[in-house]
Amino acid sequence: MILSKYSMGIGDRFARQGVAQLTALVQAKALGVDIAPVWNKSNREHLIVHTHPDSVRAEADAAVKGLGWKGPYHVDADHIGLKTVDAFIPGSDFFTLDVADFTGQAAPEADIQGFVVRHRRYAATLKIPGIDRPLAISEQDIADIARKYLLAVREAGAIYRHVEAAKGRDRFITEVSIDETDKPQTPIELFFILAAIADQKIPAQTIAPKFTGRFNKGVDYVGDVAQFEKEFNEDLAVIAFAIREFGLPANLKLSVHSGSDKFSIYGPIAHALRTRGAGLHLKTAGTTWLEEVAGLATAGGDALKLAQEIYEKAYGRLEDLCKPYAAVIDIDRARLPEPKTIRGWSGSEYAAALRHDQKCRAYNRHFRQLLHVGFKVAAEMGPVYYQALEAHADVIGRLVTENLLEKHIKPVFVKG
Q1: Are 236 and 337 in the same domain?
Q2: Cα(first)–Cα(last) distance of the chain, in Å?
Q3: What is the pLDDT of residues 61-82, one digit of tens each?
Q4: Which of 29, 30, 155, 190 is deepest in the core (most CB within 10 A)?
């Protein structure tokens, strides 16, 4: 199974927007760009929303059938480990192996030294086409990298082999995720991580490193854009070189996690992809849920009251909702509107504060981030929330499609 050159992770918390999401990719195809949709949902999200991984397959299949989509599409077992993967195996054909928790834990010293011996030929000076300077590397550097990442990659190997035993070789796509670590990986670290992946015989088609800067949920990139662009281009060069050196899959590409709404780096990413002819997997999970809430607000009446209630409850449970996402949100409570203020807003005022339009003075990234992690509140509403989605499917669907196409697909994948 081969992943397309361009693919998008389109998470859908409540599994109601599959057609609206796929409509954006249909429209992209009409503009000359083929992008494979990858519906993704993590174990944590399933637990919060009380769904089963098979529901994601059902949603994807229904959307594909409904729109007559003829291109490839996939269902991602998102951020799984050995303890959580089994429930995802029947319905998934894309597995994001999350081994960030194992980084920094050292493998046995003998294994580390064995890794150094296997790859010591790269010590001294490593020249990678596309990087404008030789990379100085010592055997001690290789050992230090192995000490931090070797055990994690071995865990990825264990997960991969577990899935392979159940599904069969070449019947699924593998991504290795190391983005939720304490520090960004340097190009040299990425090179030796890929060496370890090859040693484990993991046919990874995407790799999700941690990039410089902050990739907070649902808001723009925070950091040095020029530095990000340099690292992104060097990572592309490292991947191209590692494919040849280690025999990794020829279509191996970068995956940008928490990639939704990172508007300030979309230009550099698009330029790099075109300059180098590289592929990309862009994950946009979470934004669909926010468009649902914006759509409810826009619909007015009882739907607006429901959106206001969701915020009011989220505001009252800020610490509880934010704790699992503390590393990927930055909320200043002083910048959050009071619930009583929200109760006085019109639907257009609520949507303006929530939807990510940086030219709009009403946009509030703190408000947006709280609602981003507040989907648990809607999940607890159960049928009330689902009935509202069905009652206002048209307005919500328009926002979902517009968000993916105009704010994400066109800036990254469509030539200007």
Answers
A1: no
A2: 31
A3: 999 999 999 999 999 999 999 9
A4: 190
Find where tokens 């994001």 sit.
96
Task: Say if residue 198 is in the same domain as residue 337.
Answer: no
- Which three-class secondary structure state does DSSP give residue 258? coil
Give pLDDT tens digits for 388-400.
999 999 999 999 9
Q: For 12-41, write each residue's pLDDT tens digit.
A: 999 999 999 999 999 999 999 999 999 999
Tokens of 134: 């030789």
Q: Which domain holds residue 364?
A: 288-405
Please state, for a pLDDT cut of 90, what percent of the chain lies above it: 95
Q: For residues 36, 39, 43 and 48, what is the CA-based torsion angle, rounded to 10 degrees?
A: 150
Rounded Cα gap, residues 390 and 261, in angstroms: 26
The C-alpha atoms of residue 220 and residue 60 are separated, in whole angstroms, by 28
- Phi and psi torsions of 7, nearest 5°: -145, 155
Given a contact cutoff of 8 angstroms between Cβ atoms, the answer to whether 11 and 284 are in contact is yes
Same domain, 100 and 192: yes
Q: How far apart are CA 22 and CA 34, in angstroms?
A: 12
